[in-house]
């Protein structure tokens, strides 16, 4: 008769082979016949196995510290820690950006977010390529600090021009991250080889477009006029930046799916605990990218009003 309790809808309760790995083997799983328990020797073995099992279930579950392995919980805590560092330095970047603004000088400073962007970019390369030999948490924390300086500086700059835009971008970012995480956790969204190939092609195309756009802006090419270069132009009456921005947000959301999938894969593979730092680092990179893209979309919409 089938068990109706979904708690038992697990291979450990359905596959007879699974219990062979339990302490005490089939006897501990109570699979043996009555003749196996006739002697005192067998009874003593069963009692010892039962006591061992009870001790296992009574003991606290082993975490990342006890096992030295990567876990979902440890990765979550490290991710939250990195974002805490980011928020602290973002506050510094915000205050620094607005410190020199006066009626006589109404221009916010771009130095904080330029410094943060440069420092974050250099550290990200060091972390990515250096992690092949050794994961260095200190460098990842330093990256979070520089990213905070960048996020705080650019947010203050945009907020000065379009009041209220930072709250809108923050809520939108949290919504995208929350929905993506919920869909991934429910199993409704998963990474696939075909989708990942499309994602990689789109990413390469976007990077090439971005480099061309920056180049045109630096050389003051007329076609790239506007605050965002080619993104400020219109296509069939719709800002090109809005069209591309929506596609980029979708790419960033799928990148989050890939990040979550990689974290799960690392846990399944029994990766060393230090790799939780890399998982947290990857998630932070994607979330910051998502926030900046949403900030730019909102700026383009606000600028066209």
Notes on the protein architecture:
This protein is mainly α. It has one domain. The chain contains 11 helices and 2 strands. The chain has helices at residues 11-14, 25-28, 40-58, 64-67, 72-99, 111-130, 137-161, 165-185, 193-218, 240-268, 275-303; strands at 234-235, 238-239. Strands 1-2 form a two-stranded antiparallel sheet. α5 crosses α7 and α6 (111-130) packs antiparallel against α7 (137-161). The longest helix is centred in the C-terminal third of the chain and has 29 residues, at 240-268. It is globular, with a radius of gyration of 27 Å. The N and C termini lie far apart (66 Å). Mean pLDDT is 78; it is low at 1-43.
Indicate the low-confidence ranges by residue numbers.
1-43
Widest β-sheet, arrangement of strands:
1-2
The Cα radius of gyration reads 27 Å
What is the H/E order?
Answer: HHHHHHHHHEEHH
Q: How many separate domains make up the residues? A: 1
- Kindly report how far apart the N and C termini lie: 66 Å
Give the class from helix and strand content and strand pairing.
Answer: mainly alpha
- Rounded average pLDDT: 78
Number of helices: 11
Shape: globular
The main sheet comes to: 2 strands, antiparallel
> What's the count of strands?
2
Beta percentage is under 5%
Helix content: 55-70%
Name some characteristics of this structure.
globular, mainly alpha, 2 strands, 305 residues
Brief rundown of the structure:
The chain is mainly α. The protein has eleven helices and two strands, in the order H-H-H-H-H-H-H-H-H-E-E-H-H.
């Amino acid at each position: 008769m089938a068990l109706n309790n979904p708690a038992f809808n697990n291979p450990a309760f359905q596959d007879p082979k699974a219990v062979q790995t339990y302490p005490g083997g089939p006897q501990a799983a109570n699979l043996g016949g009555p003749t196996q328990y006739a002697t005192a020797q067998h009874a003593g073995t069963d009692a010892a196995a039962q006591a061992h099992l009870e001790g296992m279930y009574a003991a606290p579950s082993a975490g990342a510290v006890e096992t030295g392995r990567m876990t979902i919980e440890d990765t979550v805590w490290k991710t939250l820690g990195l974002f805490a560092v980011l928020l602290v330095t973002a506050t510094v970047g915000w205050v620094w950006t607005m410190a020199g603004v006066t009626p006589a000088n109404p221009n916010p400073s771009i130095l904080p977010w330029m410094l943060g962007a440069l420092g974050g970019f250099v550290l990200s390369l060091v972390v990515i390529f250096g992690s092949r030999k050794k994961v260095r948490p200190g460098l990842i924390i330093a990256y979070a600090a520089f990213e905070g300086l960048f996020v705080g500086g650019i947010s203050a700059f945009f907020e000065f021009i379009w009041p209220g835009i930072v709250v809108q971008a923050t809520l939108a970012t949290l919504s995208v991250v929350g929905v993506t995480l919920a869909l991934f956790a429910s199993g409704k969204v998963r990474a696939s080889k075909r989708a990942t190939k499309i994602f990689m092609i789109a990413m390469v195309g976007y990077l090439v477009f971005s480099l061309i756009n920056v180049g045109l802006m630096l050389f003051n090419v007329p076609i790239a006029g506007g605050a965002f270069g080619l993104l400020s132009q219109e296509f069939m009456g719709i800002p090109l930046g809005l069209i591309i921005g929506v596609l980029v947000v979708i790419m960033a959301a799928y990148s989050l799916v890939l990040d979550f999938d990689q974290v799960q894969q690392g846990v399944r593979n029994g990766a060393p605990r230090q790799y939780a730092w890399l998982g947290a680092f990857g998630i932070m990179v994607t979330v910051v990218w998502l926030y900046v893209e949403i900030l730019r979309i909102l700026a383009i919409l606000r600028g066209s009003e």
